[in-house]
């Protein structure tokens, strides 16, 4: 494409091919104009035409080699000042070269070019003004007139204004392009950071779901194993007890499967709204089966707490009871206490089993409990209970 279509709020710009064609057209126009302008201004002076070509031809490379082009044009201007005392057409190349230097070169190069242009304005003013007085015929009364500042000022200020305008336009274009490039770079950096945050958030979410799955699977399987063992022993003496126990096993299995489906739905990015909602404080009694030696001390009515706090308390009790079944021993008893205090919810699970001799809260279990409590800026204490056993105590701010 020759042109870049302007986006909303974005300035219109030429494309690479159109830019190159514009540079060639501009330089060609100035070079070709040197021939008629030299004839009209100087009466077919070959030297004036040569000076014009020396200053205009380098403009073909003004964008790719701005420093070299400016040096060539400035050198040709110096040669003109020393050998030819009249203005020539090729001097229009100097502001173009200075603009290109300030636009496509560095800031330092642009300032040096400005200084050279101001010096050139002073020299050109002197040379051209002196040439006018030297051209007067001898014998006239004003031949002895002393040239002063009033004679130099018009030339000097006009040339200085052209030099300053060329430098200012080029510098402003360079600054604006650098500003836009910086904005583009910042946009890309922000996009990369946003993508990285999204990746980290996804990894954190997968870790959270892994904790949830650990709690669900560990609790469900521990209950199923305990109930299955009880049903196996009870079947020999009382088949009705075995039937009830197997019903409990089926119920626990279905609940665990429902939660597993919900968590897998989260991993897939879609969750079936028909699946069970997040557990609440009212669901804590469902964690205790008929064969568990667990004493529940729950407030009545249950306190109204945020859903996240309720889920955290539920998972703490679930993980703690799972560890009691796995590590405390078959005869161990456990006590679960919930208390709503000022600004917080207290959760305590204490058993009288083997205690610290067989720590069942290591690995994902302990790490998951700590992460859940720390999310709410709460505190968690896990360790041997006085008199034996194991204790889990947590304070969750509400």
Which structural traits does this protein have?
ATP-binding; 10% strand; single chain; alpha+beta; 9 helices; 62% helix; disordered N terminus; HATPase_dom; 398 residues
What's the arrangement of strands in the largest beta sheet?
A: 3-4-5-7-6
Q: pLDDT under 50 segments (min length 5)?
A: 1-8, 139-145, 357-361
Q: Helical proportion? A: 55-70%
Give the radius of gyration.
45 Å
Q: End-to-end distance, in Å?
A: 62 Å
Structural class: alpha+beta
**Helix/strand order, N-terminal first:** EEHHHHHHHEHEEHEE
What's the tally of helices?
A: 9
Q: Report the average pLDDT across residues.
A: 78
Shape: rod-shaped
What is the strand content?
Answer: 5-15%
Report the strand count.
Answer: 7
Largest sheet: 5 strands, mixed
Q: Which secondary structure elements does this structure contain, and how are they paired or packed?
A:
Layout lengths: L2 E2 L8 E2 L1 H27 L3 H11 L9 H18 L9 H12 L2 H28 L14 H86 L4 H30 L25 E4 L9 H22 L5 E8 L2 E8 L11 H13 L3 E6 L5 E8 L1
Helix pairs in contact: 1-2, 2-3, 3-4, 3-5, 4-5, 4-6, 5-6, 6-7, 6-8, 8-9
What does this structure look like?
The structure is a single chain. Helices cover 62% and strands 10% of the residues. It is of the alpha+beta class and 398 residues long. Among the domains are: 12-147, no CATH class; 292-398, Histidine kinase-like ATPase, C-terminal domain (Heat Shock Protein 90), CATH 3.30.565.10. A five-stranded mixed β-sheet has the order 3-4-5-7-6, with helices on one face. Strands 1-2 form a two-stranded antiparallel sheet. Helix 5 runs antiparallel to helix 6. The radius of gyration is 45 Å and the shape is rod-shaped. Mean pLDDT is 78; it is low at 1-8, 139-145 and 357-361.
